[in-house]
């Protein structure tokens, strides 16, 4: 399980492969943080909004602090991408934990 801080910018990399080979370029993608009980989507980033990027075989996923502000506890997160050939592939599906952010810099 990965851990991030609540109300903080999150950025992490996933290096997906297909049959042991680097994944070809992607044309679409969506990353979502879900409530573990209800399955409700709580935060989302997409290829279209720049929250998912792809370069040199690495998928970078970003959530800004406004998307993580209400997250505190354990959730499920996943990421689905579409390759240039039109194949949809799940590259991430696991639990994630957001830790409370206690200290704040105000000036």
Report on the structure:
By secondary structure, the chain is mainly beta. The chain contains one helix and ten strands, in the order E-E-E-E-E-E-E-E-H-E-E. The strands form three sheets. It has a five-stranded mixed β-sheet with strand order 1-10-9-5-6, with no helix packed on it. Strand 9 and strand 10 form a beta hairpin. The termini are far apart. The model has no long low-confidence stretch (mean pLDDT 93).
Task: Please give a quick description of this structure.
This protein has 107 residues and is mainly β. The protein has one helix at residues 65-68, and strands spanning 2-5, 10-14, 17-18, 21-22, 26-34, 41-46, 52-55, 58-63, 73-83, 88-99.
């Amino acid at each position: 399980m990965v851990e991030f801080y609540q109300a903080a910018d999150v950025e992490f990399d996933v290096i997906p492969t297909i049959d042991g080979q680097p994944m070809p370029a992607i044309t679409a993608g969506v990353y979502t943080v879900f409530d573990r009980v209800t399955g409700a989507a709580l935060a989302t980033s997409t290829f279209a909004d720049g929250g998912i990027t792809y370069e040199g075989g690495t998928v970078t996923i970003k959530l800004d602090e406004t998307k993580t502000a209400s997250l505190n506890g354990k959730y499920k997160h996943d990421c689905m991408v579409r390759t240039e050939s039109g194949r949809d592939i799940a590259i991430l599906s696991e639990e994630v934990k957001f830790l409370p952010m206690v200290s704040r810099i105000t000036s």
